[in-house]
Design brief:
The complex is a heterotrimer of chains A (420), B (541) and C (348).
Chain A lengths: L1 E5 H11 L4 E4 L6 H12 L7 E4 L3 H13 L4 E5 L1 H6 L1 H9 L5 E6 L13 H5 L6 E4 L3 H18 L3 E6 L7 E5 L3 H7 L15 E3 L8 H30 L7 E4 L6 E5 L3 H14 L4 E6 L1 E3 L3 H8 L4 E6 L9 H10 L7 E6 L9 H13 L5 E3 L4 H13 L6 H11 L7
Parallel strand pairs in A: 2-3, 2-4, 4-5, 5-7, 6-7, 11-12, 11-14, 14-15, 15-16
Antiparallel strand pairs in A: 1-8, 6-13, 10-12
Helix pairs in contact in A: 1-2, 1-7, 3-5, 7-9, 10-13, 11-12
Chain B lengths: L7 E3 L14 E5 L5 H5 L6 H9 L3 H9 L5 H7 L3 H5 L11 H15 L13 E5 L3 H12 L3 E5 L8 H4 L8 H13 L3 E3 L7 H8 L3 E4 L5 E2 L12 E3 H7 L11 E5 L3 H12 L4 E5 L11 H9 L3 E3 L2 E7 L2 E9 L5 E11 L2 E4 L3 E2 L13 E2 L2 E2 L12 E3 L10 H19 L36 H4 L12 H8 L13 H5 L5 E3 L6 E3 L9 H5 L5 E5 L3
Helix pairs in contact in B: 2-3, 2-16, 3-6, 4-6, 6-16, 7-14, 11-12
Chain C lengths: L63 H17 L3 E5 L3 H6 L11 E3 L5 H14 L5 E7 H6 L2 H9 L5 E6 L40 H7 L4 E6 L3 H12 L5 E6 L3 H4 L6 H10 L6 E4 L2 E5 L8 H6 L15 H17 L9
Parallel strand pairs in C: 1-2, 1-3, 3-4, 4-6, 5-6
Antiparallel strand pairs in C: 5-7, 7-8
Helix pairs in contact in C: 1-7, 3-5
Classes of the chains: A alpha/beta (420), B alpha/beta (541), C alpha/beta (348).
GO molecular function (chain A): oxidoreductase activity, acting on the aldehyde or oxo group of donors
Keywords (chain A): Oxidoreductase, Pyruvate
Protein name (chain A): Pyruvate ferredoxin oxidoreductase
Chain lengths: 420, 541, 348
Amino acid sequence: MLKQIEGSHAMAEAIALCRPEVICAYPITPQTHIVEGLGELVKSGELENCEFINVESEFAALSVAIGASAAGARAYTATASQGLLFMAEAVYNAAGLGLPIVMTLGNRAIGAPINIWNDHSDAMSMRDAGWIQLFAETNQEAVDLHILAFRLAEELSMPVMVCVDGFILTHAFERIDIPEQAQVDAFLPPYDPVQVLDPENPASIGAMVGPEAFTEVRFLAHYKQRQALRLIPAFSAELGKIFGRATGGLLRTYRIEDAETVVVAMGSICGTIKDTVDEMREDGVKIGVVCLVSFRPFPVEALGEVLAEAKDVVVVEKSIAVGVGGALADNIEGALRNLEKRPRLHSAIAGLGGRPIPRDSLRRLFETAVTDPWEGPHFLDLNDRVVGREIHRVRKVRRSGSTAENILRQLALTSQLPQD
Amino acid sequence: MDHDFAVTLDVGSSLANHTGSWRTFRPEYVHRLPPCNHACPAGEDIQGWLSLAEAGDYEGAWRALTRNNPLPAVMGRVCYHPCETACNRAGIDASVGINSVERFLGDMAIAKGWAFAPPTAKSGKKVLVVGAGPAGLSAAYHLAMLGHSPTIKEAGPAPGGMMRFGIPKYRLPRETLDAEVARIVALGVAIEYDCKVSDLRATMREGGFDAAFLAVGAHIAKRAYIPAGEAAKVLDAVQVLASMEGEDRPLLGRRVVVYGGGNTALDVARTAKRLGAEEAIIVYRRTREKMPAHDFELEEALEEGVMMKWLSTIKNVEAGSLTVEKMVLDEKGFPQPTGELETLEADSVVLALGQDVDLSLLNGVEGLKIEKGVVQVGANMMTGAAGVFAGGDMAPSERTVTVAVGHGKKAARNIDAFLRGEVYAPAPKHELASFEKLNAWYYGEAPKTVRPTLELARRSSTFEEVVAGLDESNALYEARRCLSCGNCFECDNCYGVCPDNAVIKLGPGNGFKFNYDFCKGCGVCASECPCGAIRMEPEEI
Amino acid sequence: MTDVQMTDVPALAPDEAQQKLKFYQKGTFTVGNRLISEGERSVQASQARSNALTSGHRACQGCGEALGARYAIDAAMRASGNDLIAVNATGCLEVFTTPYPETSWQLPWLHSLFGNAAAVATGVAAAMRVKGKKTRVIAQGGDGGTTDIGFQCLSGMFERNDDVLYICYDNEGYMNTGVQRSSATPPAARTATTPALGPEPGNVFGTGKFVPKIAVAHNIPYVATATVADLHDLERKVVKAMAIHGARYIQINVPCPLGWGAPSCDTIKLARFAVECGLYPIFEAEHGRVTHARKIRKQIPVREYLKLQKRYAHLFRGGVDDPRVARIQAICDAHIAEYGLLGDDEEV
């Protein structure tokens, strides 16, 4: 059913359609509206057979989900940013225990400096935790991916993180098609756990494993996650058939036929990039986009296929692996490594802490990549003057204090605060 | 269930890991000798029969008891219970009232008519027992139980020896004695009364006896030289107590003085009170601490109004009075005269200065050795004459009923071996279960049940039993106060406290065993065993 | 018979002399007692006990925690009709019971992390509720996993009144990692992080927390302390806790021979002494109110308890008692006064 609805509420409705049995809620912007929506559905009785638990921290939120999932209940939670970091130990644990928990991550920057706005630093911080990580481009996709996530998680007995851009998606009111319960039920069978805490059939789950078997445990986790490369397209196709529209997949391409320049990105920025590509195509530039849905597992083969003919690949990502550059770019580099005609790779860091990514900046970026390629990561719309001054100052003064504070002070002094 | 590799494990799989290999010390179940058993002159397995009694199996307890002592009802009254003196429970609250439980069992056996089960096989050997006192009766009982045919020849008209002629009725009712003797007789023991053996060898020859056990007792009163006037009435204790059994009660008068410090002196003084004496005074040359009589008997006597004249000797006796001299104890504790004299009024003086043995039956028996008026015997109770054994008061030892019963048993076992041409070898004794071997924490505080005593008023004028017995509920209570020193009582502590579940419980009556596959040798079981029935032994590595 | 007043004793012994069939004079405090019926005996006395924590585990010799865990879980197994799931925090208990490829547990058991046992148990309980199952849930951990790193989750579980019985096996330190101080380490105790050095050797006085009291402050239905030295009290409390729904907390004192520096055979003795000197008050509280205190049976000076342990050896150097012994005695005395640990026990 089509609804004009806030993204968070749409996701809440989609999650409810998946019949979760235990929902753990702890507030953190920008995911709060999702669990609020679920709370309403449970409290009102619309969502039956569901325990809604207000926990005291994100660490507890995922821990409660771990317990519930291990005991055979379909478990869901959501978090963002600092919350994900606070639950980090449990994030790894849920994956290590092979528990099919689904978690929404309302992507947000990580402090300090504290920042509530969108980027992908949080998701990237847990990229090696063993979870499947799916990125939604739109709220419609966010709805679909949650339904896909439960099926995928339970099929593989592995947790899935659905990454949705904070505010940009979570707080946006859009026209969204909310599926019918029967459609979801047709796609998602009741949770049939691979292993469960059961007094009738007891087992010890969570043993201590030493050097003699730890490598094998990790290999098997890796092997299992690679199975998702096959399952995601299959389930997406199945879901698309039920919903009567294309959805999900490992990645989506846009105008990459004959494209010499291909942009790769994840999440909502793909929309702006598509607009930019349309604009540039009108001007005769052979450019296209690859929207990556599945970051974990990383679809090396699928990426190789879509990037094989490109001359230049520009990776636009909303996080910075400090000291290296773009983590997504690094991963793409791996996908390009064995291509016959290896395209040039250009890494761009954009939209950190909610910095807007305007079309003209993107266009400039894509053009420069071809005409005047740069080394290392390029920081889109970096205020060179500010950083230059700070670097200069730090060189002079050994104890320079907080860089963030200093920059803010300078910006204030020069009234050069970036405008919306 | 389909398990994730390594992360999920099948329950109880650690049983494959035999942690017993860690052990450097190994716990072992042991039996240690309970102090009561150790102290019992009759060699009773007190802890053993108490454990049956506390479970309510009174007949089982009585049968276990009578394996060593055929006279529990008697013993439960007259034994001075060294077991209770030795009892470890005294270190917690008060010793277990073993003697009263023994009496309870003895009385119950009489009331229920329990009989001894005679042995199925007979040896055909005849054994002469001289004297139907406690030693003789005990020996005859044990010999009969061992399949032999004992015959008791008793000089007196009735069985019991000093139990009848030396112990007052208020301590040992004669029905009780008679009942226990009758049970021995029912086993096939022949007793011939008024049959004094004067020539042992002749009697044995004529009767065709293969061996003999002599236990004639010590019935001849010791006399001290005390100048006495013509009209002075001086009696001896044996005479007074024995005459209590006859028709004519001794006439002792209103004021009676008893001379001596043993239990017999107390018996006489208390008897005198019961016969109507207004005053019964015991004159003793030393102090209460030095007195050989048992303190509890003294207490009972004092409660009944018997008076004590400590540190005094009788110098002379006249009609109606006597003179005593005050004494002092020297550095070595011996009384020394002071020359200080005092006159006491007394209608009669009873001497209770000990007894001697009538050894006349031994005339002509070769190889015997007599010292200090008693027959010397070896560790096997045999005299210097082969096949002639002796015990009770006529052998060197403390003169108590319990010792005599013990002599009888020991002699019977040695006679049995002798008749088979063997040497009796008693089982080696276990290590003593002394108090520090116990973990007393586990025993709840439970004061000793005090046996009801007759009201003083009634006691002083009648010969009713002074100390009443326990009824079933308090006998059970008392039996359950037993700590079971040195012997497992299935408290489940070892089974419960083992952090490695390495103790296997075998079920009621079967105790436990260690599972050395898993026992790490921590020693908690041994530390927490209440009764000291587990010992840690170094493991051979 | 030495007492004249005894002449008034009637032929039958007075009522109080007749044994009560609670426990007998022999073996009043032992694990079992052959003289009472099977049903009245402790769970540990039974041949049919579940041995939820079975043999072959790798706990040190004389491990109090292994003992306490079997005591508690076996009792809970019986109380729940074996319909029980346990969640375990990281720590000694977890490590010595479940090293791949063997586990010593015989009930469904889950280990997630060090600090989240209470929350994981909440999740298990929620799953049982939503599934309409009657299965009961226990969370367990050591004092580190409970009073320190797991405290936030524990408090959350308490305040939500989740249907979980949390059992803390308190051995007063981080023993698994090599005996470091926890917030349950008592004053003056030497640990690897509170060495017996300097002007204030061992753990600092005036620090640490007593979680049972904090649990009581959450107004949860049931809080109790217990000890491996009193099995009957421990089992009674577990059974009582299992009969209640909502958040419950039992903290069991479990001596650690390794961490405390004591012979392995002294484990129960140490636990007993800790209670009998007043240092470890054994009590229970319901809905925020202390309702029962287990009385000291044979009071001892704390000195006797401390002397048995090498972690307090610095208090007795040179044959002279350090003044800190008196300070610890004062703590015991305060406990005795606060909880009313002396006197006769009322019937429970």
